[in-house]
Each structure stands twice: as C-alpha cells, then as structure tokens.
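BACKBONE GEOMETRY TOKENS:
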Amino acid sequence: MEKVLFDIYLAEAEINANSNIFSSDSARKQEFLNSVLKKHKITEAVLDTSLFWYSGHLDKYYKINTNVKMRFTQMADNLRRQEVATTKKSIIAEGSGFVLPVDNERFLLRITDLPNNVHTFKADTFLNRYGGKYELQFNILGVSASLNPVVTLCVQCIDTVFVKRDTISRNGLFTFSVDIPQQKQAKTLYGSIHFPDIRSGMGIFIQDFTLFHSYSFQQPLSISQPTK
C-alpha cells in the first residue's frame, strides 16, 4: 500500500504541476492515474476497497503516510543535492569560476546558537580577485510564515564594500549573488543570516552551504613589485 500511495501522490503532483494540460483533458488525466494502478497490477475498485479498510485502521494508515512523506522528503533532498553538485561541477569544468571553502556545509541553528538572532559566515580564503559574481547557495528547512530570515552578503574590496540583502520566504534551495565591477578587487567575502523573530524550540536546518565566484572575463595579470 505504501508503494501504491507513493506513486499515486507522485502522479497527482505531476498533474497539479501541469494543470494547464490535464485540466482540459480529463481522459488523459484518468489514463495517467490508471497507469499507476496498472504498474501495481490492481484496479481502481481494489484501491477503493483497500482505502475503505484503512479508514477503520487509521493507525496503520497514518504509519503508511508517514513513511510516504519520508520517502518524498528523501527524494527531494537527493534532487537538491544533485542540483548543487551539478552547479559546482559546471562552474569548475567550464573554468568560469571556483568554489570558495567554508567552515561548515551542513548545520542546525537553534535559539542557543544565535547570539543577537544572527548566524555569521565567511569564505575561508583570501580572494584577491577582480570583478565577477559572488554567489551564496544552500538548502534550508524550518522556514515558516512567522519566521523569515534575512540574508546579507558582503564583498569587501580595497576601497569599498558591496552589500546585498534578501529574505528567505520558503523552504528549499536558496540562491543569492552580488555582482562586482571588473575594476574592483575583492579581498574578503562574508555575511549573515538574521532571524528577526525567534522562539524557544526553533530549529533551522541548513545543508549544502556553498559560496561561489564566477566570472566571464579574463582576470588581470598579477604584476610583481621590484625587489628593494
């Protein structure tokens, strides 16, 4: 039953994602759902009978749905990890930039971990690069309607600091970037995640925390200073 429900929910998600196609073609929608039943070698009548039986055994039905939810969470997590890994490989393979080292790529933030409601981060390297785009990317879980973290990303150059802010309004993949003019030489990259309103028991999980630097132009050559 768990396998059947998983595939049915997956099919329904596909239908909802393509509502412009299925809403005007009920026959196609039914055929799509029937393909799930055919895969598990059952009929709609058998499914209805099973669901009726589980209506009288809600403890078993609850356990099945909990397992289905865990499978969806794991699948979504794997897809996001593949997306992040693909982005990293693409940047490195194309020679269009590089991944900046960070202290932690995966961590849990609780109220005790947030002095002044703020989590800070920085690239664990000295940049010494001209221009380009500095990007922050991570997956986040724990965001709610009453908890909208504010992300600040700063690029410290020799004579100025470029700052950009954005609000995280949903769970999932979050990306954010700051563009630096070609004539500007970046030195350090740092930032923060601020939680305006946090409560006891709050837990924010962040994974695949990554900082990138990408560019589409040739970096200026370094000029050695004469020895004195």
Observations:
- The beta strands are 97-100, 106-110, 118-122, 129-141, 150-157, 161-167, 172-194, 203-214.
